[in-house]
Amino acid sequence: MPGSPWMELTCVRTGRPYYKNEQTGLCSFSKPEGGYRTGVKSSIPTRSPAGTYPARASYEETSSNYSSAQTQPSAPSYAPSNSYPSNSYTSAPARPAETVPLSRAVAPPPSSLAARTPTGPHVAILYYSMYGHIRKMALSVKKGLEAGGCRVSLLQVPETLPAEVLAKMQAPPKADDPIAEVSKLPEYDGIMFGIPGRFGILPAQMKTFWDSTGQLWMAGKLVGKPAG
Known about the structure:
The longest helix has 15 residues. About 14% of the residues have low confidence. 21% of the residues lie in helices and 14% in strands. By secondary structure, it is α/β, with parallel strands linked by helices. The radius of gyration is 44 Å and the shape is rod-shaped. The protein is built from seven helices and seven strands.
């Protein structure tokens, strides 16, 4: 249409027609509603956001009515909804590649993850074991509590038999677990017991230890602590 600022051009690479506004420099693949003039494009438009294709600076245009259209006043034009000025978007500077320290790039071995100390409730496993059977059960309970997020201390009650008697009973050496102290029992959030049977009752070692906790009972310092 003579007088229209839009001209129909053709991309020499793809052969696809597009439309350029001679006043604003906008390019679009959508046909303008106000009409357009025909021409030939010998350059390749550069793609920009939202379907707009601003043309490059060097091109040649030929049209039978192009020269006559320049002498006619051009009507006001508007930019189509899918067209944007070519300078409204600028490319962001390239982001430099991040150098990852070796300490961050290499994951810690599984053994170090398993060695982390739990931060849950602190539970004491209080046991007596002459031949090691009750301690083996206590270790299984300790493993289960730690899997649930608890901190576990394995404690053995003091031995009351002399070494000569233990030797005659062929009892193996005691484990390296700490000896339980009555004064420290209130520090734990819960207590588990490992008690062997001695003719259906407590062995003397465990009974002697609990008989020494009378002061804690009178003060109520073990009230409300889970036990099992």
